[in-house]
Amino acid sequence: NRPFFNARRRQEQNLLVEKTGAELRKMMSWQKEDTK
Predict the structure, then answer these.
(1) Can you tell me the distance from the alpha carbon of 18 to that of 11, in angstroms, rounded to the nearest whole number?
(2) Which parts of 1-36 fold into alpha helices (H)?
(3) What is the pLDDT of residue 15?
């Protein structure tokens, strides 16, 4: 059961990172357009 728990936690962490990344990308979008 332990490996399943670890995999589940890793999944949730990835989700959190992706959500945070999306928010950051939204905030930083004006900067990214500069470097095209």
Answers:
(1) 11
(2) 2-34
(3) 94
Whether residue 18 has pLDDT greater than 60: yes
Q: What is the pTM of this model?
A: 0.52
In this predicted structure, the answer to whether residue 33 has a pLDDT above a threshold of 70 is no
Report the alpha-carbon distance of residue 36 to residue 22 in Å, rounded: 19
Helix (H, G, I), strand (E, B) or coil at 20: helix
Q: Please name the residues in contact with 26: beta carbons below 8 A apart, sequence gap of 6 or more.
A: none
CA 5 to chain centre: 20
Cα distance between residue 14 and residue 2, in whole Å: 18
**DSSP annotation of 35:** T
